[in-house]
Model the fold of this input.
Amino acid sequence: MGFQMNQSDSNRRRPPSIDSLLRKTDSYPIPRLLRKRLIQDLLRVWQQEHSLPDTAFIEAAIGSHLERIEKGHLQPVINATGVVLHTNMGRAPFHMDLCVHVNQSLIGYNSLELDLNTGKRGKRGALVEKALAVLTCSESATVVNNCASALILILSACKLKDRREVLVSRSELVQIGGGFRIPEILESAGLQLKEIGTTNRTHINDYKKSITDETALILKVHQSNFYMDGFVESASIKDLAELAKSQQIPFAVDLGSGALIHTASHFGIEEEPTPESIVQKGADMVCFSGDKLMAGPQAGIIVGKETWIERLKSNPFFRALRPDKMVLSALEFTVQKHLESKNDPESPKLPDLPAYELLSQSRQNLKDRADAILKASNCRTVDLNIIETDSEVGGGTMPRTRMASIAIEVSIQSIKPDTIARSFRECHPPVIGYVQQGSFRLNLRTIFSDQDETISACIQQIEEKLVLRSSKEA
Done:
């Protein structure tokens, strides 16, 4: 694209025909119509810059461009970053059995909105909603396509002609993934934000003094993607619920992370509030994500009082936000795993879900696996070292939590860490590690044990590839 030449030479030169370029790129697994558009776009840029290269350069550049585009399709990768709920890699990983369940329920037609007892139209997701209500000890529940949608639906349902103010603490005006900010979400729902308290301290009296005849909702947003320390204070869920009830104003909590298990007892990390605990303290509505600490598919789940859940579902906006058959099927599997783990109330188990498997691994187990990977790799020129490090929960949850982990440090003399990182991304499947303190690392926390052999094979391939390239350059 930075190719420059004499403008008169460029003006005389004519680009190769689209048909000839299509024939030369037939080997790329990209549909012909899409390839044609991509080729036309590149040629157009060169022509607009008056810098049309020669045919050989054009063909090579188009080949490189198509290779980059082809890598853009959704495909499996190995997460070696140490971030368990990695937003860029789909957050909570799926169980193989979940994929089988979804596949079996989606082949051909299915009973998405069919009542098999009557043969008439049924309610979408009715069983999942009931199961979610049971799981969170709530009166009722419903599902939309993500947590931001859940919040918008709650705001839309609470908005009245003469009540448009939403009370939110200044310390909770957060920005969530993708650049979306809580104030902007409020404004998009046609509501007015009323900031309560100060950045670091908000008392219950601050809410009491701010309630007027225009107050439509008291909203509390869990600080799931950041934390404040020091001289800080916030009003409790219980106090806010009691205040809202006394003033006949709805009270909603955006919990975000959606932990349905006790993170402290299961993983030895800080305790994350559960939807059940928030409902028990009196919140009318609680919304949270399905693909974070719930360890399921992307979904926005709302639980709480039946009168308010029914009001949400009768809102005209609800239809635009409801999930499709694939999400409901995956969510059905996930909820069932959670319920099965509670079959013995006296001794609840950890649900059999991949994210929990990763979170619960001990450092010693990771060290043993790292030793086995190094032994299987049998490298001569690649320097592999096992180091102690840490890992994160990720996905905008538990920002101060760090879990002890093990990483394999990969280095090759005279080859930069970024080059090594790129080579791992070119493996099949791509391996996504990270560069830290001047070295490339593979964090074992987020690599499944059945992927260890693939990691060893990839290290061997990279040794052959990079060392061969290095010797040729020398």
